Amino acid sequence: MTTYYTKSHEWIRVDGEQATVGITAHASEELGELVFVEAKDEGTEVAAGDAAAVVESVKAASDIYAPVAGTLAGFNDALSDDPTLVGKDPEGEGWIFRMTVANPDDLKGLLTAEQYKSL
User: Residue 91 burial by CB count (10 A; 0-12/13-18/19+): exposed, middle or buried?
Assistant: First the structure.
């Protein structure tokens, strides 16, 4: 599995055509404690940069964008009961949604871990 990052602080971990998406630790810290997380419905087609989910914290609401084009394939149901999982483990158990990647070549436009850290 390979993990890529966006300048808007999403990460995408790819395994074949399937990918898991969440927000980075930096984004989680900036947002503060989350009180609500919701993704668009499974089967929704998204373009790269489309809002695919929304998170609400005690500070603000923020869209979570699809890093690449594809079809949403599921939501992390654990976040319905405990949205703070995103803050506790943003790049692990706090993932937000899964998707099928439409074109794997789109991943080439994303950042590596080293490139993201240099931001």
Answer: middle
Q: What is the pLDDT of residues 2-17, one digit of tens each?
A: 999 999 999 999 998 8
In 49-117, where does DSSP find H-type helix? Answer: 78-81, 85-88, 113-117
Cβ-Cβ contacts under 8 Å for 60 (sequence gap 6 or more): 31
What span, in angstroms and rounded, lies between the C-alpha atoms of 117 and 94?
20
Segment (H or E) for 37: strand 34-39
pLDDT, tens digit, for every residue of 78-115? 999 999 999 999 999 999 999 999 999 999 999 999 99
Nearest to 96 by CA among 72, 76, 114: 76
Cα–Cα distance list, 78 to 35, 57, 86, 93, 105 (Å): 13, 17, 10, 9, 31
pTM of the model: 0.96
Residue given tokens 């405990």 in the structure block:
82
